[in-house]
């Protein structure tokens, strides 16, 4: 089985080389080319990787597969074209971010008490509350935001995303 057959995107789209090169950029080419994982279909290959690799490597592979799958959709819907090294680097960085947060949470010996939880509070009578959230991808120049308006009973009134 060639590395191109594990791209999770069709050969007609020309994305096989992008997918293969993304594995390399993510530091996972040794997993892609490992003779142990040269099964005849992607499902068996993923199962073999999950059965034989460490949970860290499996997590990195899962993140990379998601980034490879997401790339054509991002191109189609957002006109955002990423090079293989960008896809691989994004997967690598996203996994490291997740791992760092997960490790911090698992090292928290005190645990979270109910007082530590942030809870939404209703606005006072005759007022509307607007909750805002924003996101950005560092270095990409891309941002998104969302607004949610609720009345003093907590009922949804309107929302906006961009």
From TrEMBL:
InterPro entries: RNase_H-like_EbsB-rel. It comes from the Eukaryota. This is RNase H type-1 domain-containing protein. The lineage of its organism: Eukaryota, Viridiplantae, Streptophyta, Embryophyta, Tracheophyta.
């Amino acid at each position: 089985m060639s590395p191109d057959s594990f791209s999770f995107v069709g050969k007609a789209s020309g994305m096989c080389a992008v997918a293969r090169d993304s594995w390399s950029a993510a530091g996972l080419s040794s997993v892609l080319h490992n003779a142990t994982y040269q099964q005849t279909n992607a499902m068996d290959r993923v199962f073999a990787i999950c059965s034989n690799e460490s949970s860290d490597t499996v997590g990195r592979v899962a993140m990379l597969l998601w980034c490879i799958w997401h790339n054509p959709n991002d191109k189609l819907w957002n006109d955002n074209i990423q090079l293989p090294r960008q896809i691989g680097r994004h997967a690598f960085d996203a996994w490291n971010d997740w791992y760092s947060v997960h490790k911090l949470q698992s090292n928290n010996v005190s645990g979270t008490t109910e007082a530590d939880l942030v809870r939404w509070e209703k606005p006072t009578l005759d007022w509307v509350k607007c909750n805002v959230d924003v996101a950005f991808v560092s270095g990409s120049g891309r941002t998104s935001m969302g607004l949610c308006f609720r009345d003093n009973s907590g009922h949804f009134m309107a929302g906006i995303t961009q």
